[in-house]
Give the backbone structure.
Amino acid sequence: MSADRKRSVRGIALGGTDRRLRVVAVAAAAAGLFAVAACAPGTGATGTKRAAPSGPVSTDPAKAGKVTLTEWDQNTSDSGMNDATEALNKAFEKKYPNVTIKRVSRSFQDLKTTLKLALSSNDPPDVVQANQGYPDMGAFVKAGLLTPVNRYSDVYGWGKAYPAELLNLNRFSADGKTWRTGDLYGISQTGEIVGVYYNKAVLKKLGVAPPVTYADFAAALPKVKAKGTLPVAFGNSDKSPAIQLFGVTNANTAGKQTVRDLVFDEHGKSWTNAGSEKAATTIQSWAKKGYLSPGFNGMTMDSAQTQFTGGKTAFMLNGTWAQADVQQKLGAGNVGFVALAPSAGATPVTQGGEGLAWSITSKSKHPDVAAAYLNFITNPAAMTEIARTGALPALPPASYQPPKGTVAADILAYWRKVSTGDGLVPYLDYTTPTFYDTLTTGLQELLAGHLTPAAFGKQLQTDYDTFRKNR
Amino acid sequence: MAVDARTATRRDTAQAGAPRRRRRIQWVGYLYILPALAVLTVFLLVPLGQCVQISLYHWDGLSPATWAGVANYVDLARDPVLRSGFGHTLVLVVGFAVLPILFALTLVAVMGRAVKLRGLSVYRVVLFLPQVIASVVVATSWVAIYAPDGVLNGFLALIGLKMVTRPWLGDFGTALPAVGLIGTWVEIGLCLVLFLAGVAQIPRELYEAARLDGAGIVREFFAVTLPGLRGQIAVALTLTVIAAFKTFDLVYVTTHGGPGTSTVVPAYLIYDRAFNLSQVGSACAVGVVLTAVILVITLVINRVSGGGE
């Protein structure tokens, strides 16, 4: 019995009699594998760039013969966009019976992690949703995996339909190193801005007027708190919500030009500027004074949103993507939305942008059909369909107007104001490929009082400098 | 006395086995392991080789890579976040390995006194359950327990300890131990099942002899149970320490490495660098270092426990 036990112990041990032999064998095997795979990663099929297609664009998919178009999107988490995508795909197939659309839909995070592998395969999807910024779209462009859509933009008039600010977010230089200039690599269906949701009933009960400017909002917080109500629902355990809190504040304290210069690396601005430090100081004091949900660093944004929709807080800072959930739980007429203005009468300034870009892969066999599809899902009819399902279309048709007094009407009005009135500032995590980590980590430390606003600014600037040096 | 008996057996076996070592290698034996080796090569050795290779390049995962030599490794040596990550792992080892083994041993000592435990298999199943449940489910449940308005704080407030309530996973001081305790909960069943099986293999006569000699529960545990479980403890230690070093899912779901970087562990850095930061070379370098560290620790555990003699 004892020997049995001993053997079972030996079983897990590496070892005994012929350990040396085994080490030699493993080393030999590893050496052999090296010999087999001795070319640099990333060369091979993906390394060779294809010449961009040229020549006249065929705008009629009906003439393309039998085509299967594979598209990868991330419109699953937003139920409105999911319905809209299904409906638009069906409509496209109905209009062009020779085209079959194969939809592959994944959550944002799953798409992000699998898209790289799919794109570098020999048989990638034809159309994909690429996330703007250096880590995703920039890397795809650099590797030659996306095809520029300039000529389609000319034919279909996307350049005229979209505000330059939105279109530029989908541009990259051909080497993938400079963002917002160069070729166009896709177009977006939806718009998004971050703002303040407020519970009308709670504010009314407390006798606090809904804020319009940033100063109104800052002044409302102590008033709400003094009456024994939690001012802002905020949960930051998944780290990203603090970007919205800091971003919205920073847009107002540092000003839109500074924010744009910082994120897009223009005019030599520094993250240690006075406006950004003021934003950091402000949100740190909000945390200290108990204006944010207690224990926010250990609470998910979902739970915080439940606090807000449960009527436990007066405000919630979130993006337009929260609209569907909020209006469903609180009732469309009981919630308001505001993008804060730096001063009374000024255009509201807030961070936001557009949904992921719909792009065409460079290995697609039917780029013209893919482009026609892109146009189909972003034309005015499509935008109406998107609005109808409760999402925010990038280009809301002039005729579309949700019922007055609903949160949808507020959101649409502010989107129109901000996107056409030059009030849009970029998300701060666009700054460098590592900025999301640096920013979110720093913000958790700042809000917990572990980092001074000045030290926080220095951390951001260090990340920025490292990126510039290595670029 | 029990110890003596075991040592004697051990020595006998060792001597009996000695001449065999000098025998010629039986090549036909390798034919039998060929299928296993083939599977191992395709699914383990080739990816491992690729990982080592990629770790020597700067690579964003898409564009052609550029040769980096040992630059990625040099960066790692200078990286304070990675260093703190390995430090955090040591804290997790306490939660994943030390505590469950101590708990399980205590439980075994107590259960050993029960002459015949009714429904032992039911206990085993219940205690083993955390091992079977998908780790994401485990992590999500614990997020709810640790939440600011969660079960734990609710319970503490109920018994008049409102002042110690806190966002356990969001507090810089408690987040890491909180993750470690989830590991304790998960691993305790594994240890207990291993030890119960081990105790069943200890000859009853040893216990009877110990009792005849007047040994109490403590003496009996240290003289009979503990030496008898040496092998199982080594196995449990190996498995749980590896689990602690490999932890990714619990951290990913509960804290994303936060607050700040207070729960960042090497496996999380691998994911973050490969998929979020497009630093695939650096990610692979972390992977290689982590693999090497785990290998060394496993060897040390086996050496110390006498398994590799």
About this structure: The mean pLDDT of chain A is 87. The CA atoms of residues 337 and 430 of chain A lie 25 Å apart. Chain A touches chain B through 65 residues (CB under 8 Å). The first helix of chain A runs from residue 2 to 12.
